Amino acid sequence: MNPFANTLAQLKKAAELVKLNPNIYEIFKTPQRILQFSIPVKMDDGKWKVFEGYRVQYNNARGPFKGGIRYHPQADLNEVKALAALMTWKCAVANIPLGGGKGGIKVDPEQLSNGELERLTRGYTRAVKDFIGPEKDIPAPDVNTNAVIMGWIVDEYSELVGYPVPGVVTGKPLSLGGSLGREAATGQGGFHILQELSRKLKRDPKKTTVVIQGLGNVGYHFAEAAFKGGYKIIAVADSKGSIYDKRHKGMNPKNIIQTKQKRGLMDGCYCVGAACDCEHYKRVTTKQLLELPCDILVPAALEEQITGANAGRIKAKVVLELANGPVTHEADEKLNKKGILVVPDILANSGGVTVSYFEWLQNLQNSYWSEQEVNQKLAGVMSKAFHDVWQQKEKYHTDLRTAAYAVALNRVAEAMQAKGIS
Ligand code: NAD
To answer: From the UniProt record, which GO molecular function terms apply (predicted)?
Structure first.
């Protein structure tokens, strides 16, 4: 099943459960707008290359479209459509007044120089300029895009319209109107959800083991918060390798990153000279890492990591989806049957878009908040979202993903009904 078919399967399941108005269900099955375009870029050697770009605007019933831009060699329209749909439901679960969108470019950014990457980003901005803007559609970073890239988009867009428009994207540098707390927001938000869940399940963090796949923006900040919160991180992975702490003493992600930066690769020995000691770590593959016995498994890398093929071997008690779409629909059904609690992406990683919303608000008001204010507001939104979803889980006696969809579908449907769709 392709990623968009996966989201549609989940939509169908939740729509049936909440008895969604069939006309609204029909509208929810397709994006409002799909943009697909070519971006010609002059490379450093003087030759021109053409890259494929996408922006999908899924639904804006509750507010302007919102969603990141991904640079990845496997980015394609089905993936971007799925991610745009997820953004719609995610903003509704967090109860922020935004719709859902997503963008992407089929490119391996590691193969480009900085100048080529900048020209590609500016080309993308020119291609979508009539369709984005603070009142229309607000992009943000996603896999392989970051604050620097967002800065180029702000600059190009502002040049095109003739005045500064910081609110055209979120996740931008602080000097261009970024928000304090945005970088850590997705991981931090995931940590708030973990805390709420631990309280609900009466779990002691000190006796809770955590395995994390992906140590990028999301995975690293989550790991840092979980470590500070007393959870035992027993295994981590990035795209280059994974390590497992056989003694279950718990790893400090800061040490891992420091050694990784010094040594370059996560090659199974990245704790040399730091608090953790290489001897006690076992090198495992990403595949093995996902199947380790643990309390909480956190996929925080890419989608479709737990599929029908490996779901049967997952030994975690809880899967906390910090990546978007890391568990396929087929795998989800298998995990549910095994009694593994899956905390869905549209709840678990909604901290990122929540602080993006805060950033956009600050840009519109031209007034900026302290990091403490941002974090306090984030904690409030995450806690409310968790309890809203849990309530639907109990009401319908269903899994957490379907419960989160129930919250989202009802909220978006209410907005559509208020606009006259019946
Ligand atoms: P990132 O590029 O900063 O980090 C990705 C991490 O995953 C890196 O550590 C990379 O080495 C690792 N990785 C890649 N392939 C891997 C593999 N096969 N095995 C193990 N590790 C692998 O990206 P990010 O911003 O942290 O995003 C991660 C996920 O979270 C994506 O699914 C993204 O859509 C989702 N997400 C991100 C945000 C955000 O605010 N950045 C918000 C919501 C959801």
So the answer is: glutamate dehydrogenase (NAD+) activity; nucleotide binding
